[in-house]
């Protein structure tokens, strides 16, 4: 049965009106949902600083050279672990070390040989005052002392000949030759003195008391002179070692080295030059500056913060989570300083000197509030 044509047109018109109504209803639902989300959802509102830096809580220690001179030893590589008082560099100390060995030898001769020998001689002379002659035991002691001095004399003579041989070659100096010659003559004089003492002991001569008193006074005067000489030598050695210590650079604290440039042996170092800094083994914090116009009164202790480091992309290494600890007063340059304690962070991000962007959450607001505030501002 056929349908009348006018009726078919009305049916088509009714069906064509359904599509716009459904679309309008869908749009209405989307707009209502967006308005509901924009008016109820809350998102963090942050202030950002691009000048944030991870710094050590304790102050850094500088390794400086007190005097100028060429480096002969240097272990100043960045990120190297050092202990407190560890030697990290040394300037040229060759001449000072030679002088220290010379002074050590002279001090040993005076302190171990000459002074005990003179005291032993005084003891023997005092025994002679009592007994009237030197005993066999004292004679044996004199003989042993004479042999020890002769051995030292032979060594000194051999060393003198060696220095005289090296003098034309430029390896030894004239001052060293003269000092060794003086040492050899002093030992020869002591050997002669002990030879005479031994001869007296062997002959068992009876000495006049007044002569013995005079000899004792003379030897005691020599002992006093030797003591003054010993004090002078030790003072010179102490000054010489202080000069060596000035040229020995040590780490003042335990920590990690941070050297601005790689220094190698042979480089001339200037007096007062900082060769490296030592980052102490301590906790680190975050420092950041904010413009007072955008941050004053909005940042307060206890607010959460997030640091994204420039050198370590946060997509691979993560972010540093922190909390605001302190907000300083406004500086003359219109900046405020913010200190943050680190709560959670990957180990490789807790290094002094790393810089990045710090975002501090100051509030939470709906998207509609954020939009209105941005339009007003």
Summarize the structure.
The protein is α+β, with helices and mostly antiparallel strands and 377 residues long. It has helices at 5-40, 94-131, 136-166, 174-203, 209-246, 292-295, 314-317, 367-376, and strands at residues 43-56, 61-64, 69-74, 81-82, 87-91, 248-250, 255-258, 268-269, 274-280, 284-291, 304-309, 320-327, 335-344, 355-365. The strands form 3 sheets. The protein has a 6-stranded antiparallel barrel with strand order 1-10-13-12-11-14.
Describe the structure.
With 377 residues, the chain is an alpha+beta fold. 51% of the residues lie in helices and 24% in strands. It has 8 helices and 14 strands. It has helices spanning 5-40, 94-131, 136-166, 174-203, 209-246, 292-295, 314-317, 367-376; strands at residues 43-56, 61-64, 69-74, 81-82, 87-91, 248-250, 255-258, 268-269, 274-280, 284-291, 304-309, 320-327, 335-344, 355-365. The strands form 3 sheets. Strands 1-10-13-12-11-14 form a 6-stranded antiparallel barrel. Strands 2-9-7-4 form a 4-stranded antiparallel sheet, with no helix packed on it. A hairpin with a 7-residue loop joins β12 and β13 (335-344). α2 (94-131) packs antiparallel against α5 (209-246). The longest helix has 38 residues, at 94-131. The mean pLDDT is 79.
